[in-house]
Amino acid sequence: MENLLLNIKDLKVSIEEKEILRGLDLSINEGEVHVIMGPNGGGKSTLAYTLMGHPSYHIESGAIEFDSELINELRADERAKKGLFLSFQYPEEISGVTVEDFLRTAKASVTGEMQGIISFKKLIKEKMELLEMKEEYATRYLNVGFSGGEKKKNEILQMSILEPKLAILDETDSGLDVDAIRIVAEGVNKIRDNKRSILVITHYNKLLDYIEPDFVHILMDGKIVKSGGKELAMEIDEQGYENIRAKYAN
Q1: Distance CA 69, CA 60 (A)
Q2: Distant-in-sequence, close-in-space partners of 232: CB < 8 Å, separation ≥ 6
Q3: Three-state SS at 250
Q4: What DSSP letter does each residue of 150-214 carry, written as one string?
Q5: DSSP 67
Q6: Which of 12, 18, 28, 141 lies most in the core, judged by the most C-beta atoms within 10 Å?
Q7: One digit per residue, pLDDT tens: the chain, 250 residues?
Q8: Element (DSSP H or E) covering residue 103
């Protein structure tokens, strides 16, 4: 039996008094990979930030239920502790803080348990081997001097360490070359399982050359106007968004 993890019902969201999401519905079961595509300004990043509880995004009405609990009013840190994770489009550089120290602190914050230095070193080494990352990577300052692909791979490492129930990748392929996109996709494929769900938000379909989604959704003008399989992404590639808008948008 499928277990419902995320259930969004008639979600309306505004920022600076401008309505962006206009009645969005979306359901994600455990272990599923969903891809949301759409033109710029349609509400893709607004959905990501709203799911994580960004204070600038105001829920006007509707419901976000995560693991059978209404989370509309929860802060971002409370959502993270419940198993939500957001991979940023443009990860911040933090000089003076190593990747290992950052991840150990994040793990302790999410789990509420102190992470022993030796046991955590073992954990991060295992995860980095899985993702084919060099060991010295852990001693570098967070994202400082990293290439675009390295920054994204670091986000995948965070996902692997924090083990969220739902990982949201907000345009994680933005600005990456083909090799970097493949690296990110391979990392996602290595951590996906029958319990962890992944929501990939993208403007392009290049990532889908390497990730096999369960569902593809088109988000346009604040609503999901069409859902389908991978063939829907191919339709976008061939016909563009305007055909979809003419057919399905209200």
Answers
A1: 18
A2: 216, 218, 226
A3: coil
A4: HHHHHHHHHHHHH--SEEEEESTTTT--HHHHHHHHHHHHHH--SS-EEEEEESSSGGGGT---S
A5: T
A6: 28
A7: 579 999 999 999 999 989 999 999 999 999 999 999 988 888 999 999 999 999 999 999 999 999 999 999 999 999 999 999 998 767 788 899 999 999 999 999 999 899 999 999 999 999 988 878 888 889 999 999 888 778 888 888 999 999 999 999 887 766 677 777 787 788 888 888 888 999 998 877 778 888 889 999 999 999 999 999 988 888 888 888 887 777 765 5
A8: helix 99-111
Distance CA 222, CA 10 (A): 11
pTM value is 0.90
Structure-block tokens of residue 67: 């693991």
| Residue 22 belongs to some domain of the structure | yes
CATH number of the domain that 30 lies in?
Answer: 3.40.50.300
Burial 51-88 (b: 16+ CB within 10 A, else e): bbbeeebebeebebbbbeeebeebeeeebbebbbbbbb
**Between 148-162 and 178-191, two packed helices, what is the crossing angle to 10 degrees?**
0
Domain holding 79, by residue range, is 4-91+153-248
For strand 18-29 and strand 58-66, is the pairing parallel, antiparallel, or unpaired? unpaired
245 in helix, strand or coil? Answer: helix
